[in-house]
Amino acid sequence: MFDSHTKNLISLAPSLDELNLDELAKELTKTYAYIVSERIRLRDLEQSPFENEDLHKTINKMRRLAFSYEAYVSFLPERQNRASAAFVAGSAHHVCLMAKKLLSKESSPSVLAFEGISTEVC
């Protein structure tokens, strides 16, 4: 899913425990494909409500990844690999947003406020 420049950008992100940066681009792509396939499956089956334990575990993993890298970007602005951390955080947030839309039948408005910013805006 990512071109070679983007894969390089991802591989330069700060390292985190139990995270293989060389495989992170593949993991983000795999997660994206998984969520898209679940969305298609749900649409084809027309099920409601949708519950999938594996999807919830995947979302939780992506949330931790997104917030961890977001913290790097927010609290360590002088880091040389800040752009890489920001890209990974944004990619993980995007995957979480896709999953949230898959799991929710309700539409929620985007928020841009002093207290916080919606994931889709980030």
Which overall shape is indicated by the principal axes computed on the Cα atoms?
globular
Total count of helical runs of at least 4 residues: 4
Average pLDDT taken over every residue: 79
Q: What order do the SSEs take from the amino end to the carboxyl end, as H and E?
A: HHHHEE
The major β-sheet equals: 2 strands, antiparallel
What does this structure look like?
The protein contains four helices and two strands; from the N terminus they run ααααββ. The chain is mainly alpha-helical. It has a two-stranded antiparallel sheet with strand order 1-2. The protein is globular.
Keywords:
single chain, 122 residues, mainly alpha, 2 strands
Short structural description:
The chain is built from 4 helices and 2 strands. It has 122 residues and is mainly α.
List the topology elements.
Elements: H1 4-11, H2 21-45, H3 53-75, H4 82-103, E1 112-113, E2 116-117
Antiparallel strand pairs: 1-2
